[in-house]
Structure formats: structure tokens, C-alpha cells
Amino acid sequence: MATVRLKPGHVQPVWAGHPWVYAQAIERVEGGATRGAEVRVVDPRGNFLGRGFYSSGSAIPVRILVRDETTAIDTSFFRARFERALAARQALGIGTSPDTTGYRVVHAEGDGLPGLIVDKFEDVLVVQLLTFGMKEREAMIFEALGQAFRPRAIIDRTPANAAKLEGFTPGQGVVRGENVTTLSFRERALAWTIPFDLGQKTGFYFDQRELRGRVEALSKGKRVLDAYSYIGAFGLAAARGGATEVVSVDESAAAMEVGAECARANDLAGVIRFQRGDARRIMQEAHASFDLAVVDPPRLAPSRGAREQALVQYSKVAELGCRAVKPGGLLVLCSCSAAVDLAALTRALATGAVRANVDAIVLERAFQGADHPVPAAFSEGLYLKALIARVEPRSTRSTAPVTP
């Protein structure tokens, strides 16, 4: 087994439990590591820190799976990690009720399996293999998933961009079990059926479950905008919560059709309207006509290098969201970009509010759900954050434009 030796000054994060070894932290690789191979990680003095899979040429050449010298990374190892992940969720009440049968059951670093995502849609598992090392071990991973969950089918939906970065060809479609064409599940007693080929993440955004519940609780008697809605999960929550009208907006005609069908299946079609279009234009033209607006754009900062430009975009969508909301109304602003932390998102909201000539008062903050756990030493894992703010007429301070 090859050894990755760290430079002085780069040991503390890994020693404290951070699962990533960055390229700039590596002094040298001893023993000729090949792509996907298991490697040891040691400090400058040779003290053992952990073992993981090697990704040559990556900005993160090693993601650590185990912190001892002896544990074999085989089918039994994966099965044990899967069973532990499931038990951790059941201990929190996730997956123990027929009201919620869809959730994330393996969240990469949060479950000690960096490079692997597994979402559970009742008895169907959807998998993403995000590193070369995980891809090379897909046979044992699929076998272990079968042993731990006894699924009706296992589907590979590894993103093409992630596979390209790691240097492999992603699998697509059913890899074990029955030929599945739709993903059906329940979330908080709402029923969902999504065509397999719709194509967002694994098929659904489970990470926003708790925030959808909060939006539902805040929607009674309100006119609600669900911007960048995908299939309208926030919109359906608002409609069930007693909203007088919900407008869900997305550029995907297919997503709008699926959302409308799910609304009919849940007897909410009379409240929610699905509108294909540009969410920015819809917010611009709303002219303070909504009591509550949920603005959940796609990831604007896929990397740290894109962060500054993304913050400009977040301030713009925040401005448009503020303009769409009535005085005294609520704006829910979300970011799924790990490179944009809560403080940066809050600054973007403040800048957008100034440009809209209103004040935004942050009332609540929200993050990804408990089925998306984050190791204490891995701040990068807290990728999802949201602000719930009250939009008020602006006080007498200057309204001169500012540069973010």
C-alpha cells in the first residue's frame, strides 16, 4: 500500500477528523499509488492518520474512510457502514413512519463514506459514485446495499461532470433488480411520483424537508411564490398549509408537468399554479404582490473560484425576491453552494434589500436536514443554508447603490 506523506503545517485538520487531503498538503507519495488504490496517510514524522482512496490529479487526492491500520475495506465494511447509517437515521425518527419513505440514507463524509451518496425512495435506492475509488468498488457497494436494504432496484445516477473530473465513465440506469421507470415515495404524508429520467440530483431534494415543513406552517392565508421550483415541493407544502394561491415557477416544462400531476394526486391542484418561465422575470414583474416568496436557485458557486461572481448573483435574486414580496411579507432565500457560507448569504440578502429599497429582518436560519449529517471537523459539509426574513419598508437611511 502506497503512503501519502503530508507537509508540515497541514496535519492538524486531518488529525482532527477532516476527511479530505488537499493536493497542496501533500509532501510526496511513497510507493507508487495508482488511481483508485487504497493509500495510507501519515504526518511528516510518519505517524499514521488514516486510509482512503487515491485520486491522482484531483484537487483532493485522498478522502479518508478509516482511521486505523487494520480494517479491511470490503463488502462487509460497506454493509456495516450502511447499516450504521440507517440506524442513525432511525434513531432520529427518519424512515420510521409511513408518512416519510424517501430520504438520504448515505451522505458521503457524514456517514464515513466520502464519494458515495445513496437516496432511498421507498424500496428503490439511487446511488451516486463520486470518486474513482468508489467507482472501482461499485460491485461490492451494490452487493452491500442489497444485503443491508433488500431493495427492489438499485439505480446509478452518477453526475457526468463528477465522473469526468475523476476520470471515469459514469453508469446510468438500473444496475440491480427490477427495471424501474418512476421513483415513488412519501414525504411528510405528501405522495410523489417522479419519472426516472427527469434528472435533478438523484431525483428529489431531500435536504429541504424541514424547511418545506416550516414554509407550510407559515403559508396559511398567504399568496405564495415558489421560484426555481423544480417540481414544486415548496409549493405543495404551502398549498397544504392553507395558502390562498401558490405560483410555482421553473424553466423546465417536464418538471412543471410532473409537479402538476403530483398536485392533483394530493388534491392540491386547485390552489397551486405551475408556470414555466424565468424566475427572475416573474419576480421582477410581481410588483410586491406575494405574501411569501421562496427563492431557491440552483447552485451558483460550484467551486470556491466561482464564489465572488455567485455572491453578485445571490444579491440580485435577493433583490428580486424582496421586490416580489409585500411590505411585511416573508422571503425565504436559499443557497446550496458550499462555497457560500451563512454570513456571505446574509450579506447578499442585505445588499439585495438595499437595492430593492426595503429592509430585510432575518427571523430564522435553516440548514440541510438530519439525514445529511456533517462531521464536526468538516465545515465544507454544511452546504445548504437558508434565511427566513421579513421584508419591511426601508427606513430613512441612504438608498444609494453599493458595490457588493
Structure report:
- It is found in: Cytoplasm.
- A 7-stranded mixed β-sheet has the order 16-15-14-17-18-20-19, with helices on both faces. A 6-stranded mixed β-sheet has the order 2-6-5-4-1-3. A 5-stranded mixed β-sheet has the order 7-8-9-10-11.
- The mean pLDDT is about 95.
- The N and C termini lie far apart (about 50 Å).
- The chain has helices at about 10-15, 75-90, 130-135, 140-150, 160-165, 210-220, 235-240, 255-265, 280-285, 305-325, 340-355, and strands at about 1-5, 20, 25-30, 40, 50-55, 60-65, 100-105, 115-120, 125-130, 155, 170-175, 180-185, 190-195, 225, 245-250, 270-275, 290-295, 325-335, 360-365, 385-395.
- It is built from 11 helices and 20 strands.
- The protein has 3 domains: about 1-65, Roll (Archaeosine Trna-guanine Transglycosylase, Chain: A, domain 4), CATH 2.30.130.10; about 75-185, Transcription Regulator spoIIAA (2-Layer Sandwich), CATH 3.30.750; about 205-395, Rossmann fold.
- The protein is of the alpha/beta class and about 400 residues long.
CATH topology of the largest domain, anyone? Rossmann fold
**How many E-type strands?**
20
> Helix fraction?
25-40%
User: How many structural domains in the coordinates?
Assistant: 3
User: Which architecture of the largest domain would the CATH scheme give at its second level?
Assistant: 3-Layer(aba) Sandwich
Distance between the termini: 49 Å
CATH class of the largest domain: Alpha Beta
Overall 3D shape? globular
Radius of gyration: 23 Å
Low-confidence stretches: none
Strand numbers in spatial order across the main sheet: 16-15-14-17-18-20-19
- Give me the secondary-structure category: alpha/beta
Give the name of the CATH superfamily of the largest domain: Vaccinia Virus protein VP39
Count of helices? 11
Mean model confidence by pLDDT: 94
Strand content: 25-35%
Major sheet characteristics? 7 strands, mixed
